[in-house]
Design a protein that fits this description.
GIY-YIG endonuclease, six-stranded mixed sheet, alpha+beta, eight-stranded mixed sheet, 45% helix, extended
């Protein structure tokens, strides 16, 4: 048994990282400390003024552990890594885990390649970026191939020159095929030098060249070629316009600001490289309640730069951060040169911060509206259904369906919705054991009996062990059972619950002639519902999901059994006769009620085979009675 008071006495007065666990061994908080002894003890001092979020976290701590390190810097890095790996519930968390690609030019090779790279390696290659959109990066690469005809293959040149044939890019005039020796090393290197100039933002040379080539092709009446140069010129100008949307200096920096509500925040980052805004991105953060703006910014900066390979020389912030010198030292070591934080108060840099803040506010507002719409289609829809059924509330719904084809491998499905959303971890599949043939009512009786008897057994077992009943996989009972059918299915469910002495409301999803839900059957009354309402849409989603889940399970079993039918169990009925019977009668029920003469008239059947089929179903009926 972990004794918190005793363990607090053992804490060393050294730097390190502490890790808080709950009763289920889940990591719920990670923090760093200059002195573990002083920092961790503060959480358990009743006189300490803790925020409501931290008070709640402390109430759930079952035990803690810690890792001693040699310096505060090492503690910072370890803290960032542990937070990213474990996503503790009570840490302010960066929800988005995005990486940004680069353009890599392998200038150390004799015939360099230009490609996308996910990280900036420590090699002799040249890197450009990062690009905030992989799509934008691919557009640039495609433009470079069209402009400079550089290779993108993995061949080792000049070792493999002459091996094989030139690739498709050569034939569409986007590569000069150095792999075949069609271009000299010097000429190819000149193209690479132009690529590097282009990636550095020097578009003037290529723009003039394309204009001259377009004019020359037009004068030669080669309008198709002129149109190609025109399109390339347009692409270059568009890229140049994007890059010019920036301030005029040549610095590299990230500009970070955020907007927040009570529980969420959105951070906006502008990326400036070589004095040009190369992109922007936004990041959602959770767990910000009771956090100051400084604390939110500090958490974002640590988590963002822990997962981003590129660190600029200057980082402009809308708020100051805690441990600024320590974090700057960490990022400087990561970059290999001095990194500075600034909180601008005037001038063009402050205007950039204001622009980032406005962008963050817009995104947060859009997300809030999206959340309201999602709330209406989930929790709001459940509330509507509860009102239709005159229930005080509705949190958990379980829906059931039966699927079988040709009387083979009947299966049942149970899907679960909580707060209007599917809870797939609670879905269950049932392979029917006690029912032969397509008897949906009997199959549903078995499914419901097994589901609730299992829950009752688990409850008893957990109670014997002195454990919470909610820990079982079947012990969480629904507020409402939805049957994929009307009066008949509801009656079966109510009978099962009565036999088990359980009281759970049951309703049926009544369908129209097109097999779409038109109303709910509840307490012996069909309740019409507004087909344009969110409640109706949720019922339809539940019905479709229940059917899908049953069909998918049934399909998997059919695949394993290679399409077996109950007819396969009849002596003398092979694949050909089974196919002819189903083609002639369309259903297993029609075959069951047919007499010997009718069966014998089916192609490929004879009287002996017909008698086998007839007797087989008579024996089934005798067993059932």
């Amino acid at each position: 048994m972990f004794n918190i008071e005793e363990e607090l006495k053992k804490l060393p007065a050294k730097p390190g990282v502490y890790i808080m666990h709950d009763a289920n061994d889940t990591i719920i908080y990670v923090g760093k400390a200059i002195s573990l002894k002083n920092q961790v003890r503060q959480y358990f001092q009743s006189s300490r003024n803790l925020s409501p979020k931290i008070q709640k976290m402390v109430s759930r701590i079952a035990y803690f552990e810690y890792i001693v390190v040699t310096s505060e810097m090492e503690a910072l890095v370890l803290e960032c890594n542990l937070i990213k790996e474990n996503h503790p519930k009570y840490n302010t968390m960066l929800k988005d885990d995005k990486g940004y690609p680069y353009i890599k030019v392998t200038v150390n090779e004799e015939y360099p390649r230009v490609m996308m790279a996910r990280t900036q390696g420590r090699d002799k290659a040249r890197y450009f970026g990062p690009y905030t959109s992989a799509g934008a990066l691919k557009e640039v690469l495609e433009l470079l191939r069209k402009l400079y005809h550089i290779r993108s293959c993995q061949k080792s040149l000049p070792k493999e020159i002459g091996n094989g044939r030139p690739c498709l890019y050569y034939h569409i005039k986007q590569c000069k095929a150095p792999c075949m020796g069609y271009v000299s090393k010097e000429e190819y290197r000149e193209s690479i030098d132009q690529v590097i100039e282009f990636l550095n933002g020097n578009y003037a040379l290529v723009t003039k060249r394309l204009e001259a080539q377009m004019l020359e092709a037009s004068e030669n009446l080669d309008f198709e070629k002129a149109a190609e140069f025109r399109d390339l010129l347009s692409s270059v100008k568009k890229l140049a316009q994007k890059q010019d949307a920036s301030n005029t200096d040549t610095s590299e920096r990230d500009i970070i600001a955020f907007a927040s509500t009570g529980t969420e925040a959105v951070a906006q980052v502008f990326f400036v490289r070589e004095g040009k805004v190369i992109g922007r991105d936004h990041f959602h953060m959770t767990g910000v309640e009771s956090e100051s703006r400084t604390e939110i910014m500090t958490s974002f900066v640590k988590q963002f730069y822990a997962g981003t390979p590129y660190v600029p020389r200057e980082i402009l912030l809308s708020e100051p951060i805690e441990d600024e010198e320590l974090i700057a030292e960490w990022l400087s070591a990561k970059k290999g040169m001095k990194v500075h934080f600034k909180v601008p108060k005037r001038g063009s840099k402050e205007r950039l911060i204001e622009l980032a803040e406005r962008n963050a506010s817009v995104i947060l507002q859009q997300d809030s509206e999206k959340l309201q719409r999602e709330e209406a289609r989930t929790v709001g829809a459940m509330k509507q259904i509860a009102e239709w059924l005159d229930m005080p509330g509705l949190y958990r719904v379980e829906a059931f369906d039966i699927s079988n084809i040709n009387g083979f491998e009947s299966v049942g499905s149970m899907v679960v919705y909580e707060k209007g959303r599917p809870k797939r971890s609670d879905y269950r599949k049932f392979r029917i054991r006690s029912v032969q043939g397509p008897d949906d009512y009997a199959s549903m009786r078995e499914v419901l009996t097994r589901r609730f008897e299992h829950g009752m057994r688990e409850e008893a077992e957990l109670a014997e062990k002195g454990m919470d009943a909610s820990l079982g996989s079947f012990t969480r009972y629904p507020d409402l059972i939805m049957m994929d059918g009307g009066r008949g299915q509801v009656t079966v469910a109510e009978q099962v619950l009565a036999e088990l002495k359980m009281q759970i409301p049951v309703c049926g999803m009544v369908k129209d002639d097109n097999h779409r839900t038109r109303g709910l059957y509840y307490n012996n009354v069909e309740i019409p519902i507004d087909t344009g309402s969110e409640g109706f849409k949720l019922i339809t989603r539940i019905q479709d999901e229940t059917h899908r889940f049953a069909i998918e399970y049934h399909r998997s079993l059919r695949g394993k059994a290679q399409g077996k039918s109950i007819l396969d169990d009849i002596e003398g009925i092979g694949e050909t006769r089974r196919r002819e019977l189903m083609k002639h009668y369309q259903s297993l029920e029609a075959i069951r009620v047919a007499d010997v003469e009718d069966l014998a008239a089916v192609p490929s059947m004879n009287r002996k085979a017909a008698e086998q089929v007839y007797e087989f179903f008579r024996r089934k009926e005798e067993k059932r009675s």
